[in-house]
Write a structure and sequence with these properties.
7 helices; 2 domains; Recoverin, domain 1; 2 strands
Length: 160
């Protein structure tokens, strides 16, 4: 059975954490080197986001800058605004969305469905109200026309 070093395991974790970027680097060291464009052995948020944008564009996939910035912030354990190789190799903490329990997710989905249903009912009620208003106006116009025809035809022609 082959044993792997902690550095090797960390390297694999690094690659796995960057898979969403669609990375082209062959090893974690190459990946870190590709991202560290100024060679200072740390990755700034600008480098991190730029690398993500570049690799997503090359893969023909959409890039979400806000998500990349959030990912960077989650990885920046010491809050210095840079990622070290160690921070890059750590599993990222779960975001608030990931921390939500299954029951909370189901509740949110149910609330969203209910909101959509309520909006649809409101839209239909408003539409029905507009239709009824048009019918009422058409009926009033019809009655007004009948009254006018009756007034014009019934009272002015008695010359006997």
């Amino acid at each position: 059975m082959k044993m792997y070093s902690a550095a090797g395991i960390a390297a694999v974790m690094l690659v796995c954490t960057l898979l969403p970027f669609g990375s082209f680097a062959e090893t974690p060291s190459q990946l870190f080197g590709d991202m560290d464009t100024d060679g200072d052995q740390r990755i700034s948020q600008e480098e991190f986001v730029g690398y993500g944008a570049k690799t997503k564009k090359a893969a023909g996939k959409p890039f979400n800058e806000a998500a990349a910035k959030e990912s960077f912030a989650n990885r920046d354990a010491d809050g210095d605004g840079y990622l070290s190789q160690e921070e890059m190799s750590q599993k990222t903490p779960a975001s608030d969305k990931q921390k939500m329990s299954l029951e909370e997710q189901k509740k949110k989905i149910g609330e969203a469905k209910q909101k959509k249903e309520d909006e649809e009912k409101k839209r239909k009620a408003e539409e029905e109200k507009r239709k009824e208003e048009r019918r009422r106006k058409a009926e009033e116009a019809k009655k007004e026309k009948q009254k006018k025809n009756k007034d014009d035809g019934g009272g002015g022609n008695n010359d006997d």
